[in-house]
Amino acid sequence: MNAVISETFTKTFARTPIIKLKRQESILQIKDLNVHAKNHHILKNINLEIPKNKITVLLGPSGCGKTTLLKSINKLTDLYKELKVSGNIYIEKDDILNTQRNVPLIRQKMGLLSQKPYPLPVSIYKNVAYGIKLKGIKNKKLIDFNVETKLREVGLWNEVKDRLNSSADSLSIGQQQRLCLARGLAVKPHIILADEPTSALDPVSSKIIENLFRKLKEHYTLILVTHVLRQAQRLADNVVFMNYGEIIEQGRPDELFSYPQTSQMKEYLVEGN
Amino acid sequence: MILKRVFLNRLSGTWMLITLVIILSLPLVIGIALYLKASPIFESQSLYQLIVSTDWSPCNGNFGFWPFIFSSLYVTVLSFLFAAPICLFAAIYLTQFSSKRLIQLMHPVIDILAGIPSVIYGMWGIIIIVPFVSDVLAPLINIKSSGYSILAGGIVLAVMCIPYMLNMLIETFNTVPIGLKEASLSLGATSWESVKHVVIKKSYPGIISSFGLGIAKAFGETLAVMMVVGNMVQLSFNPFEAGYPLPALIANNYGEMLSIPMYDSALMFAAFILLVVVLVINLVFRYFIHKTQSQ
Q1: Which stretches of chain A are DSSP H helices?
Q2: What is the interface pTM, i.e. ipTM, of the complex?
Q3: Which residues of B touch A118 (CB under 8 A)?
C-alpha cells in the first residue's frame, strides 16, 4: 500500500524528493471497518495495515475516532453496547472482529496503555502478576521472575524492588504508567496499543515513556494514538492521519510531514507547528 | 457597597456554620436526652444487669433487655443475610453487564420500593410472608409455626432494605472508572474475572458502607417488623419462633404501660440502646472502610 502511495505521490509532485518505501510485513490488517453509534458514523471505511515491529502513530484532532479505532482493535468496543462495529480486523489471518471465541486470548495479544494510568487496586507486584496468572501460570518462581523482568524492562525495578507489596496507587503518575506498561508486557503481547499515554504525564515521565517505546519496537509492534504532532515526528515509523472518522493520509513521517497531500493534513500541520 | 458585600459574605458563612453545628449536635442532643430520661432505672438495676438479664417482668421491677436486644440483632442479621447477596449481585449485573436501558428502567422501580410506607410492607408481610413461613417453610423441616416469627421479620426487613442497599451499591459500582475494567479485560481477564478482581476490590469501601447503612436501617426499623415478628418476650435461636425487637417494644408500649413504675425509664433506656447500637454499627463499618482504604 505504501508503494502505491509513493507512486501516486511521484506522479503528482514530480519535483519533490521521493522516499522509496519497502513493502513491510504487516501484523494487523483492518478492512472496511465502520463504527456507528446511533446516528453518528464514528469510523468510516477504515482500511489499514500495521507494519510489524514499527511504531504506527494514529494522528489527528480530538474526536476524530483514533481511540475508537484502537478500542476496535482489541475488541473493547464490545463493552459499549451502543456501538455497532462492522468490517474485518485480521491478526495472523484470524478475523478477530467477528468472533466471540477466545476473546480474552485475543486481547492478550494486545497490551493496552491508556491515556491515564489505571493501576489495579492491588500491590505493585500483583499488578504485574495479574495477567501472568490469567495465562494459567501458577509457579511462584516463574511469576516472580516475570514480574522482575518486566519491571526491569520498563526501568521501574530499581525504584520499586523494596516495596513490591505496597499499593500501586502509592506510585507517582509516571511510575504508574510504566507499571501499566510492565503489566501489559507481562502477558507477552504482539502489539502494544497506546492511547495518548503521555498526555497526563510531566515532560520527564513522557520522555521516559517515549524512550521505552523506541526500545520496545525491537520486540513489539506499537500503535500509538496522539494528537501531538511533535511526538508523532519523534516516534513514528508510520503515520496515519485521521479526521472526522476517516483516514486522510498515511505513510512515512518524513514524507507525510514534509509533503502533505491533502488540505486537511496541511492545515493540521500548520496549526500543530 | 463593598462593606455590604463583605458583611453579607460573613453573615452567610455564619448561618451555614450554625446549620452545620445543629446537624452535628443532633445525635449528641438525642443521646443526652434519652440518657437523662432513662437514668432513673440505673437506681434500681445496674447497666450490666439491664443488658444481660433475660427477666422481663416490669410489674416486679425487673427489666432485662437481653431478649429484645437478641431479637433485634437476630432479625437484623437475617435480613442482612437475605438482602446483601441479592443487592450485591443485582447491582453488579445492572452496572457491569446489563444495558443502560435496563438500569434506567430500574431506577424508578427502586425509588418506588424505597418510597412505599413501612405499614404497607407490614401488611404485605402479614398477607404473604407469615402464611408462607407457617404453611410452606415450617412444614418443610417439620416445625409448627404460626408464621409470626423472627424469620418473617427478617424477610420483610430484607425486602425493605433492598432499595436502599441496591441504590448505594449501584452508585458505588458506577464510580469505578471504566478504564480500570478495560485494563483488566485487555490483560485477558473475562468480564466476571474483571468484576471479581478489580471492580469489587476497588469498590470495597463503598460496599462496606452500603452494607453498614443497610444494617443500621434494618436495626431501627419498627412498624413492618412489629407487625410480623410475633412480639413475644423469649430467647430462642429458632427463627420460626416469635421475637420482640427493641423498636417494637418501644412502639407497642410507649403511652400504654406508663403507670408501671420505671416503665417510662425502661423504654427510654431501650431507645438509648437502639441509638448506641446503631452508632456502634456505623463506627464499626467506618473502621472497616478506613482499614480497606488504607490498604
Answers
A1: 2-12, 66-73, 103-108, 124-134, 140-153, 157-160, 173-185, 203-216, 229-235, 253-258, 263-272
A2: 0.84
A3: 177, 179-180, 182-183
